[in-house]
Amino acid sequence: MEHIRHLGIVGLGLLGSSILRAVKSNYPHIHLHLFDGSRQVCHEVEALGLAPRCAGSLAELHECDLVVVCVPTGAVATVVIALAEGMKRGAVLTDVGSAKQMVINEVGDRLPAHVSFVPGHPMAGGEQSGPGAGREDLFAGKSCLLIPLATTPTSAIERVEGFWRALGAVTCRVDARQHDHIAALTSHLPHLIAFSLMETFGDQLAINPQTGSFIGRSFFEQIRLASSDVTVWTSIFEDNTAALLSQTEHFIEVLNQWCAILQERPVELHGKISHSSVLANRLLGRVV
Amino acid sequence: MEHIRHLGIVGLGLLGSSILRAVKSNYPHIHLHLFDGSRQVCHEVEALGLAPRCAGSLAELHECDLVVVCVPTGAVATVVIALAEGMKRGAVLTDVGSAKQMVINEVGDRLPAHVSFVPGHPMAGGEQSGPGAGREDLFAGKSCLLIPLATTPTSAIERVEGFWRALGAVTCRVDARQHDHIAALTSHLPHLIAFSLMETFGDQLAINPQTGSFIGRSFFEQIRLASSDVTVWTSIFEDNTAALLSQTEHFIEVLNQWCAILQERPVELHGKISHSSVLANRLLGRVV
User: Fold this and answer.
1) Domain Prephenate/arogenate dehydrogenase, which positions (chains A, B) (predicted)?
2) Higher model confidence: residue A288 or residue A250?
């Protein structure tokens, strides 16, 4: 955090307010400059005692060394471009969006030379939204992916890396195309699965009300993501369509193979389940 | 528990040992008769201090008022038939398997008249297995579905209901065909999804090792079920194939609709996500 005396946070929902909480607690000497487009969110932040006041406009963030943009992915480019012009020389902008290639394309060469933009994506969140849902330790031990462009100055990348590490995250630099493809698998597809499972359950519930007696922990766990913020996820699905489609199609193929095995070659079930179980136990850190 | 002085438990894994723990703690006057086909499991139960000894054969359970059969679904019918002949008059047998129609067909009219069988299915479990994974409170507040046949005496059904209620579960009577169809959706399909997502992740990991940096809480949560016991789940998939296939095919259809909307009608995304989100929030008990 050594290069950051003035920190800006734009968007004070789950992620933005978690950053706010973490910085307030652990780096009280840093001056915070907060902005949210929604007056109601600003009032909530003030009512929660997280900040005395929010800025009235983006222009008020001009003296920040780093601004973290925490708005839905579809709005990131607009905010970054709007902010950049007024920022002081050497300022760095970053974001927390789940889809990167589109933002990079939209920002393109539209930033002034005295400001840098380092797209980012902390692998942290939750299905709850709004400033009240934020948690000081949300980023502790989580991966934060950074997607710098070839033209991004090293000092700017390092400032953003230093920021996330100070919040306890483990940073990792990746390529935008790769990022979008893998995030589609590990984050966007799980949400699409939860939405689809919820829909399938709704169809069944309409036929048979007893369906409600059949819900165990495993089912609740697998539909939890379906209760996520609608605006945020509409934006992510719109902004990472190609990669999400490709991963969903691959997943459907895998499901079709399961159907074929169930129907025609049940003798292969044990091996197939075992393969996934070994992988899952390894990933979950258990002895296999 | 008033009609139960001698309780038998066959199979001392996660579910059997959870029943054992709950009964020992809360109903110490009940005589427990335990059996497991695996010597190693018996040794584990004894080493954990859960019981001084396990029975050497099923025949030793003859004086039980109720026997709960906690073996993989594929073995339930065999155990029930093997047990029944030697049981005292009026004894009741039940099980905890996830698939019911097949067990009911297999048991058929092969039980002697002096014994009743009430198939059951507590909606409780976990991805951990073995006697060490059991928990005294595993059934507290959970649904336990009972699937009595038209010929089952009311007194037998009530004995099994009383047993589960004493362990804190909420009982509910359902029809076997309905049970298998809904359990396929709310329990078996979530497992199949977890296995498939794990497999899809494995495919991606083989192409790009950076995939490992992209794992957030939501992904871990959605693949946890993939680490479940291989034998148990092979048996469930084999024993409830038709219903699981039908639910999986419906789920694939829903996924295909998502793909079509992503590709051709993104304007519908918000409404579609919103529909699932409302349902999920309602189910998870949150204010929408």
Assistant:
1) 5-288
2) A250
pLDDT digits (tens, 9 = 90+) for A245-259: 999 999 999 999 999
Same domain, A30 and A166: yes
CA distance B53 to A279: 36
Q: Are residues B86 and B195 in the same domain?
A: no
Instruction: Name the band, by pLDDT with cuts 50, 70 and 90, for residue B288.
Output: very low
pTM of the model: 0.88
Question: Phi/psi class of residue A141: alpha, beta or left (left: φ > 0; alpha: ψ in -120 to 50)?
Answer: left
| Same domain membership, residue A168 and residue A229 | no
Mutate one of A15, A180, A222 to test the B interface: name it (highest B CB count within 10 A): A222
Q: Which residues of A touch B202 (CB under 8 A)?
A: 275-276, 279
ipTM of the complex: 0.87
- At B40-72, the pLDDT tens digits run 999 999 999 999 899 999 999 999 999 999 999
Other Cβ atoms closer than 10 A to A3: 14
Inter-chain touch B249–A259, beta carbons under 8 Å: yes
Number of domains in chain A: 2
B chain contacts of residue A129, beta-carbon cutoff 8 Å: none
